[in-house]
Amino acid sequence: MTDTSFPDFDTMTPADFEKYLPDFFANGDGHVSTDPRLQTFLKNNPDCAALVRDLEAIADQARSLFEPSDPGDAVWSGIQNKLKHQLPDDDDLAVPQTV
Amino acid sequence: MDVQGLQQMTQNTPAPGVYKRNPPIAGEAEAIEAAKNGDAEAFSRLYALHKRRVYTLCLRMLGNVSEAEDMTQEAFLHLFRKIGSFRGESAFSTWLHRLTVNLVLMHLRKKGLNLVSLEETINPSEDDAPKRDFGSRDLQLTGSVDRVALERAVASLPPGYRMVFVLHDVEGFEHNEIATMLECSTGNSKSQLHKARLKLRELLRQPEQSAQPASLKEVAV
What we know:
Chain A is mainly α.
């Protein structure tokens, strides 16, 4: 993490923390709560710590979002129809019939 | 972004995270080569192998079943036309993933996101912006998030927020890659992601009904 543009971690205010939070998330491994430099600040500012926990929980859960699902059968039918009627330059390409 | 831009982006080096999640599939290489030569059954095979991944990606990015199905169709039609340009420099699924992302972005721009610069358009209105609110510890999410509730909240995000959140937190793209795709700055991507997460937190802390838009019945998969 590059510290040059960050405020002093010991004297940082909640407003400073809010300002730099996107960079704290982006520059580390995505887990601000385990950054050793922020432990004292988070301990002294429980609302900020709660915010970090919530945002980390959201980011962690995001990876499991949207279980894969199949498109409707109409999608394949639509592909077949469009290949038949809208690809005049590709007359030599056979239109697939089955999935 | 024009078609040439789309083609260039599909040939870029893939995101490392995406590549790791896209190992080669048995029989895929043969199907690709056959499809390049116009083998219809091979194209059917590629559709069967990749329809779920492409559709799910479209659904994540668009938050709407009907649009996601339309874009899935467009992605495979585009694939049918352009498969000859796939040179195997990345995994086929990575190439198709990138092609799909860029088609969806083009689609969204056609819908209106291209009217002004993306730096502005991915910033939602004041009403949609997250409230600046650290506090209310009694309302915190207690460190766990229900997946279904989060899916619904993501689907109800303003399009700009949803796009950056899905690309970064769900699909695993880096900020510099997102900045390239969305034609915005890396700082803007970081900022939008943060605002998206704040908005999600706000939505998840609201009673379920107020967080659920009318169109969400369609997205509950």
